[in-house]
Design goal:
It is built from 8 helices and 16 strands. It is α+β, with helices and mostly antiparallel strands.
Length: about 325
Amino acid sequence: MNRPSADWDRVARHVAGELSTAESAEMRKWLDANPAEARAIAALEAATKQLGSSTPVDVEAALRRVKTRLRPAAPWRMYVALAAAAAVVLMVGRTWFSRTPPGSGTAPAEYATTVGARDSIVLADGSRVLLGPASRVTVRDRDVELVGEAYFVVTHDAQRPFTVHAGGAVIRDIGTEFSVHSDGSETVRVVVREGAVQLGHPRDSVVLSRGDVGTIESGGRVSAARGAATDDDLAWTRGRLVFKDASVVELGADLRRWYGVELRVTDSALLRRHFTGSFLNESPSHVADVIALALGARADRRGDTVYIRPVAASK
């Protein structure tokens, strides 16, 4: 009888220390029931720790480099893959040391994800980043430029502030965990899970604390909703895409990053409507149909473009 295989994404997030309390409990049960895999995962954890805090570590990239060469159904192959990932992490770390002169931590590094994919990164200062789909961060020491969406667990240093730049906004750490959502024409949105951040713009700024949601509109107006954060705000870190009274513009930006499709809506009445709903691993066609139905319209897909049209409109 085959034992259940591991969730690669969850393994990587476990090693990076990004699991929630509930997820950590589930992972511990799985490890207790699978001692061979537990030893391999422990080796991977030891490899990342051996590198210390001076090297960025992309755990999921290491896993991807080996898991595609193995059949995941066989438990012993899982063990081999994890052991190989540990070796890759060590090799990458040593290569970084050999190519990066001491004290050159300000050299920029760029990390990016593809459509529908997330990735976790450990930065040189020990801070962790969970990068959303089709997103990119450029890191210069403790200064980060973000396009897309990311969740940050920051190692606080009062002498060296950790700063995120996104869509004209500047988010400065005051010892915290927070997410930032920025998709070009959209409002920049910051959700604080722990601690506090300063959300600023050349025209205004506000300090956000645990549970607060801050936004910066396209015109530069900064606002804060105290205690307004919910579990849905960070559902994307668990792979679930949630919309709450979302505009067509917001729908289009997120569908582009998560599913690689372009949303086209030209009807003025439909453009004024909003959508509430959530998706987890559904196909792009199903997502388009659900959104169209909720908007009182229909969806026509042509390649990577989805046209949302009034029901009575002719093709």
